[in-house]
Sequence to fold (208 residues):
Amino acid sequence: IAKAAAFDQSVTSINPDVSTEKNITSLKTQLIAIDKAYNALTPIQKQFISQASLDIVKPFQGVLTISGQIGDLKANNTQQYRDAVDKIQKDIDALGNINMGNVVITKDIVVKIIPNIDKHITAQEDIDAAVKVEAIITTLKGSVGAPTPDINKVQDARKAYNALSSSQKKLVMNLADLTVWESADKDAAAVEKKINAIKVSNKADFYK
Fold:
């Protein structure tokens, strides 16, 4: 009962005033603390939470659910990861205003108070950067056994990949295609070098 009462007290201290950036940050901090405190309660302790507290927290449930989804994100170069990020964005787009008595927290502010929204924004930016490099690699086209693309294009693709941050590099889904072309170009260059190194006394006889 004591822990439920402590939770009630933290909830009732929520300040819905979001008229300044400082207040927005403060509300975000409060939500993080409340979410952490709620998750720390046992099922029995949660039964002693007052209805008044539940009524206050309920409008923020969507925000806290999205925060949990963002927290579960594990960056990797799979379509599943990109689909997860897309779903989170759709859930964010579906958020609306939050009414707290005489105070209305508009949607743009609601998005801002998602505790880890910055992680989601970074995930989107990293995916966008990776997709651009993937497009460059895709233009190389072809497959193993096909004529190799222009060496300069392969090098440009590698430069584009190297320009990514370490986190963005992990998201590139077709890096293997680039390495295949790089290997093919190296093999072609090695063969050309050997041919150029051949000394032919009679070129006419060499090309017969």
